[in-house]
Write a structure and sequence with these properties.
Blueprint (H helix, E strand, L loop, with lengths): L1 H24 L23 E2 L6 E2 L6 E5 L2 E6 L2 E5 L7 E3 L6 H4 L24 H5 L1 H6 L32 H11 L7 H13 L5 H6 L9 H5 L2 H14 L5 H11 L4 H9 L1 H6 L3 H13 L6 H9 L1
Antiparallel strand pairs: 1-2, 2-3, 3-4, 4-5, 5-6
């Protein structure tokens, strides 16, 4: 009896450990978390070529079954599908029931290292996944190989920003999500892919201010913080512009105030009103009288009016 008790206890502990380990690998949405290293190691960003008629890219130079679809990289390795948001992983195991249909529809000819059981299958047709995964899968994914090619979605844009990260500069899992969030704005169409990326981003910690200053790729050209930085540069000249305008006016006002403070205010105003041309038109004698009036009228004040009356 004691041995049976100990046996049940050991089995219960093993079951708990297995459940915990499985929960760490899969998050229950079809694609596991990116923590798997497979037999593909790419030192550089691969060359990706569109598959004609399909919203998928393939890598002809990669020694493996390497594809890109809907914002993720897909690899068929060791009879399983793996996905990652970065070209060299780490990879997450994909449940066969949740592999996107356009990945399943890729023709056999675009598999650079097809499995042995692919032999004899039509090169321009997709693999016979029903034979590989069995009848339960075929019944659940019924109709996956029938589709209208005229209604195929567009290819997702390639994350070419990842070309700058290779070798020692290849980011860690946490840094991958930060850089991708700042540099890649594409929203996946597949529901499983969207949910997978959301779960992965939730696990990634937010970047600290020091990390953003040390690593320019974490700041991103379209982040809200960077959009506010050039704003003061644009506002400063607009505030100084009107401030310089009144500074140009004091020289003009000094020229107007200077004659008002002199000893001959009438002589400054008479050329503007035009009194002298009127006197010149009346004759030579009056010109002389007008000149005398201007010469002697400085100290007479109202006597100038009497002299103009006598001349008339």
């Amino acid at each position: 009896m004691r041995r049976l008790r100990y046996g049940f206890i050991v089995l219960g502990l093993l079951f708990c450990m297995t459940t915990t380990a499985t929960a760490g690998v899969s998050i229950g949405i079809g694609i596991g978390l990116p923590n798997v290293s497979i037999g593909i190691n790419l030192p550089l960003y691969p060359e990706l070529v569109p598959v004609p008629g399909y919203p998928v890219y393939y890598a002809p130079g990669v020694p493996g079954n390497y594809f890109f679809y809907d914002g993720l990289y897909w690899v068929f390795y060791d009879n399983n599908w793996y996905a990652s948001s970065w070209y060299n992983g780490p990879w997450g195991l994909v449940d066969p029931y949740y592999v996107p249909v356009y990945i399943l529809r890729i023709p056999v000819r675009y598999y650079r290292q097809p499995p042995v059981y692919f032999r004899g299958w039509a090169p321009n047709a997709p693999p016979r996944w029903g034979h590989h995964w069995g009848r339960p899968w075929q019944e659940r994914r019924h109709g996956w190989d029938r589709w209208d090619r005229n209604r195929a979605p567009r290819r997702a844009p390639l994350p070419v920003y990842q070309r700058s990260y290779s070798g020692d500069r290849y980011p860690s899992v946490d840094q991958q999500q930060r850089v991708r969030r700042d540099s890649y704005r594409y929203e996946p169409r597949n529901k499983v892919v969207r949910e997978h990326l959301r779960q992965v981003e939730k696990r990634a910690p937010a970047p600290t201010p020091r990390e953003r200053e040390r690593r320019p790729e974490m700041r991103g050209p379209q982040r809200q913080g960077d959009q506010q930085r050039p704003a003061p540069v644009q506002v400063v000249p607009q505030q100084r512009g009107p401030a310089h305008e009144p500074r140009q006016q004091p020289p003009v006002m000094r020229e107007q105030r200077a004659p008002q403070g002199g000893h001959e205010p009438p002589r400054v105003r008479e050329p503007q009103r035009g009194p002298e041309p009127r006197v010149k038109e009346r004759g030579g004698g009056q010109e002389r009288g007008g000149g005398q009036e201007r010469d002697h009228g400085q100290g007479r004040g109202h006597g100038q009016d009497k002299d103009e009356g006598r001349g008339r």
